[in-house]
Amino acid sequence: PGQIVGIELDTAFFTGNHSPRFSLQAACIDDEPEALVALHNMRRDPDHPYGQIGSAASAEDLALAESLGTDKWPDLVSFTPLQPGYPETRHHFFDVSGSGLKRITHLRLNMFPDGGIARLRVHGKVMPDWDKLPAGTEIDLCSVLNGGRGVSCSNRHFGVPGNMLGIGRGVNMGDGWETARHLHRPPVLEMGPDGNIKDLENDWAVLKLGVSGTVNRVQIDTAHFKGNFPESCQIDACFEPNQPDEAFEGDSCAQRAWVPLLPRTKLGADRIVDFTVAAGEVMQRGLISHVRLSIFPDGGISRVRLFGTPQAATAGPLRSRL
């Protein structure tokens, strides 16, 4: 579920058989009616999880669909012509930020009268129903599945910060956040008393949690980064959930009320490392809404996980616990 701001429709390769027109309807249905569950189960086939080519809706399918009243759902995109799937005409974009629909769980795609559509992509903000989460449940507060997103960074030469919030482990280095190399690194590296290399420049990325919460465990994954992982990293946190994204860019970012969450810590190649409050590695804070990940001096990180308890089950904001 989420708030939809944009629709992307792609008719790639459908050059003589694309759908000439389409519309898109939307609804918010948190508790799926029996008819919808039945439709899903009827179409499920262990040998063909994405459906069977050449199959069509049965009379029973159509009756179940009609019983849901989906034809009466409000339009997200009204009756609109589509272009054929040639490179110069295949992409269609629709700004639906002014639709007035605050939260959407289901879509109905209509083609007029028939034809082919290659991809439907829905852009927006993830909005889980946190009231349904049992009290005390630990989740990844910054996962893209829970609404986490990358806000800003000092450098995105090889990948954007949002990649670090993806599902599962990264498939390659391009599936993480990696920065360009600092050209003014010391020619001779010296170790400081804390065990970290001295006088290093650093890069940083700001991540916004999908829901404010208390962090109990931090996980850093450098999958695929074997000769280009950062020497170390540090994570700071703040509780400023109402600040716009612009407040975390450039010089404005330094003005936020950052406090340490994970002190500067050594990293290794191509591995998952967990840091916990229980082990004294992660500092115990109250509610946080954003984190700033700093890497020394540069390099790539595949995934960042912040496991903790969402706001509804926590005791108070970060400021009250400093």
Task: Provide structural commentary.
With 322 residues, this protein is mainly beta. The chain contains three helices and 16 strands. The longest helix is centred in the first third of the chain and has 10 residues, at 34-43. It starts with a strand and ends in a 12-residue tail after the last strand. Residues 313-322 have low confidence and may be disordered.
Main sheet, how many strands, which sense, barrel? 8 strands, antiparallel
Rg: 24 Å
Weakly predicted, low-confidence segments: 313-322
Please estimate the helix content.
under 10%
Indicate the topology:
Layout: E1 2-10, E2 21-27, H1 34-43, H2 59-67, E3 75-81, E4 91-95, E5 106-112, E6 119-126, E7 139-140, E8 149-153, E9 177-178, E10 203-221, E11 232-238, H3 250-254, E12 259-266, E13 272-276, E14 288-296, E15 300-301, E16 303-310
Antiparallel strand pairs: 1-4, 1-6, 2-3, 2-5, 7-16, 8-10, 9-15, 10-13, 10-14, 10-16, 11-12, 11-14
Helix pairs in contact: 1-2
Main attributes?
eight-stranded antiparallel β-sheet; disordered C terminus; mainly beta; single chain; 7% helix
